[in-house]
Design goal:
Chains A, B: GO terms for molecular function: lyase activity. Chains A, B: This is Hydroxymethylglutaryl-CoA lyase. Chains A, B: Keywords: Lyase, Metal-binding. Chains A, B: Belongs to the HMG-CoA lyase family. The structure is a homodimer. The mean pLDDT of chain A is 95. By secondary structure, chain A is of the alpha/beta class. Chain A is 43% helix and 14% strand. Chain A has a single domain, classed as Aldolase class I (TIM Barrel, Alpha-Beta Barrel). In chain A, helix 2 packs across helix 3 and helix 11 packs across helix 12. At the A-B interface, helix 8, helix 9, helix 10 and helix 12 of A face helix 8, helix 9, helix 10 and helix 12 of B.
């Protein structure tokens, strides 16, 4: 990790945020927005997803987005890939890092990927090996870590065993997702301590959701346990795929505000992130759930209090 | 404290929530709503404010509200009073507990109360003595504890000295308010540890605001330090008086969700509180910032996922 920062904020808005947005957005606008994000000090930006456009039409311009953004030293540009075909397209477009995914919930994994977790390992191993051969680092998302809409609670051993398996397969960073935003801080501590027996916390990131308003408290709990990488989405873009209308991804700026307030250096410029949030809110034309954005807008309208 | 609960949730919605709402609400509806709140298991409900109706027309029916609600054993009904005249009206209406207030910020105190903090002590002492003589317990709110829109940072010694002074004057519970929602968890820990040198934490409550999305993380931090009383407002009713449109009071149901998820007993029934939030949202006719309410509504609309 960059020695000048204490935690690494991983920006997933252009992928995880936009994939759930209904408003079609021009590629040129996406690229302009990502270029703004690059200037905030963020060091990881997940640009898009190379899943089949049939599944996520909003990201069907994946290649053009990857090719369009300006590159910057020390900023890693990632993209999600579901399989070898996606990997080929991602490599051809020229990403720095490959993100793969599976679910901690057998039922959700089958519904989402149409295969068992064991079958998914086979797919992922091929993708990981090819990506490694191409010199790429790998990020692995595990969803439903803290609870699943189909299975309810997920056994803590299931989370650590999947995490360990991914690390063995060569994944560099494993992002544990609170996909339905149901985690409470004690649970985050318990899961992370359990996982840390098999996978060093330096290889773990937290992907909190704010559906229950607990994204920052769970972030804080994970930080206290020793996690140093956190996923956010500018503006809180994305929502909750399992509860349309409710909050999903935590706003990057809310996370940066908390950490900087704690004296924990993120390397990210809060005001610039808020500007990016304001910009994308004007594009998607709905009020985003970001607290610091709405506070900034309220102050602008009032022309006053800081 | 009731031995069957681990933390006490203090419901301030009918006072601190409604005082900022623009929609006029019939007294009968307020009373019906408070009666619902009484059935959730909450043990403190702040019913209204006996400030002059000129200042808060929304609460000009204070007397009728206090007289209208059904009483229940083990539920304390409080009301805010600014001065002796307010106290008289509150006592005459029949409240159980008196809430008084001042600001940790000299500038804000002068703007809000038109007197210095020292002058306010004189006013409050009279109110406290009279209330004590009438056999009432006293709750004291200190606002702007973690930052002020006029003064910026508030010195930690200022907070502990005001807290100590209030305790000396006979205040039973002192609620420290993050009025502009600017606190971060480390600051909450620092302030509380400092205050606890002069005032036992058993006499301290936290009044978090969610303007920056940090209400629950600050609640968690305060709990870890040893605070066991927390103020919430059903639905997150109230907003931020210093940033209209932004979030203010934390939703009681979000707080209950977090604590119960942590195995910390609140004695409050989450589903019933969410019903109260849904009810008042239908009255004020705007989407309230409560996460658990919006999640519940999203699931209702979808007819599915729990």
């Amino acid at each position: 990790m960059n020695k000048e920062i204490d935690v690494r904020i991983c920006e997933v808005g252009p992928r995880d945020g936009l994939q759930n947005e209904q408003t079609p957005i021009d590629t040129a606008k996406k690229v302009a927005w990502i270029n703004q994000l690059v200037d905030t000090g963020l060091t990881y930006i997940e640009l898009t997803s190379f899943v089949h456009p049939k599944w996520i039409p909003a990201l069907s311009d994946a290649r053009e987005v990857v090719r369009g953004v300006k590159r910057k030293q020390n900023v890693t540009f990632g993209a999600l890939v579901p399989n070898e075909r996606g990997l080929e397209r991602a490599l051809e477009a020229g990403v720095d890092e490959i993100a793969i995914f599976l679910s901690a919930s057998e039922t959700h994994n089958r519904k989402n990927l149409n295969q068992s977790i064991d079958q998914t390992y086979t797919t992922l191993l091929k993708v990981i090996n090819e990506a490694k051969n191409a010199g790429k680092s790998i990020r692995g998302y595990i969803s439903m870590v803290f609870g699943c809409p189909f299975e309810g609670q997920i056994h803590i051993n299931q989370v650590s065993s999947i995490s360990y398996r991914l690390m063995e397969m060569g994944v560099n960073e494993i992002s544990l997702g609170d996909t339905i935003g149901i985690a409470t801080p004690n649970q985050v501590e318990d899961v992370l301590r359990h996982v840390s027996k098999q996978v060093p916390l330096t290889n773990i990131a937290l992907h909190p959701h704010d559906t229950s308003g607990t994204a920052l408290v769970n972030t804080f709990a994970a930080y206290k346990v020793g996690v140093r990488a956190f996923d956010g989405s500018v503006g809180g873009l994305g929502g909750c795929p399992y509860a349309p209308g409710a909050a999903g991804n935590v706003a990057t700026e809310d996370m940066v505000f908390m950490f900087e307030g704690m004296g924990v250096k993120t390397g990210v410029q809060l005001e610039k992130v808020i500007q990016c949030a304001q910009w994308i809110q004007s594009i998607v034309k709905r009020n985003l759930p970001s607290h610091r954005l709405q506070m900034a807008l309220a102050h602008q309208n009032k022309g006053g209090v800081k």
